Structures are given as structure tokens and as C-alpha cells.
User: Fold this.
Amino acid sequence: MTEIEHPSAEALLRGFEGAEAIYLELGILIVCVTDIEIDESARRVTAKLTELRTPSLKNSLFHKRRPKTSAPLQWSIGAGYLTAISPHTWKMGYGRWSLYIRADLLMSFKSMAATWVTADDPYKRYHQAIQFLDRFGAHEKRIACSAIDGEN
Assistant:
């Protein structure tokens, strides 16, 4: 049997470094992904996220959980060996957060989100975003795992 070579998790994650992404986790924001680190011994990957202010996404579920501030939101994410990585999608792997970096998806999402009224219910916007991602076919098959989940 011929073994199929897949890009390493590290190679795929390089595409996320410095990238603009749709961030989904019981809320939706546009973020910049930085400082990605893979800890092979702990089988864990972490990254820092910074909100890229998007007028139609202010007053999101994230903003409701954080103290009022004029600065963009910033936080860290992490995932273990169940994380799902593909060229344009990175998911925690067991619920919680997902990142999408595909350029056409971002452009279409921003166009759709620009029609949202800031006063709209943030839960409604979150569900609209999920429906958009599903209709757009944003979910890619996981193709990399080495260095994080121990598969070769």
C-alpha cells in the first residue's frame, strides 16, 4: 500500500500566522491570528487572537462577556491532539472555536455582515453566521495531524 503524504500540522499552521480569519465560538468576529506555537511534547498548539474591528460585529456576544473597553479584544486559544487543521480551516476539534481564513469566504462574509444592524440580537447574528458558513461549504476535511496528535 502506498502511503499518502500530508502536509504537517506545522506547515498548515504557518498559513494561519498573521492571517485575517473568521472566528466562531458562540459569537463571531474577524480576528488576526499570531504567535502560533506547537508544543509537540504536550501535543498542544496555541495562538493569540486580536479582534479586527468590524462595525457590524460590535456588540457581539464576546463584547457582552468582556469589560467595556475601546481597545480591540485580545485573547489566546489552544487545542490538543484532537484539533482539526486544513489549509483554510482550524478547529479546536471537540467543540468550542473555529477559524476560517479562505479569502473568498472572508470577503463574502464581510459583505453579508455589513448588512447586519448593530442593534440586532447577537445570538441571531451568530446563527446567521453558522448558516452562512454551512451554505458556503466552509468546512474542510482535516488533513494534518503530525506533531500534534502523533500520527505519521
Observations:
- The first strand starts at residue 20 and ends at 24.
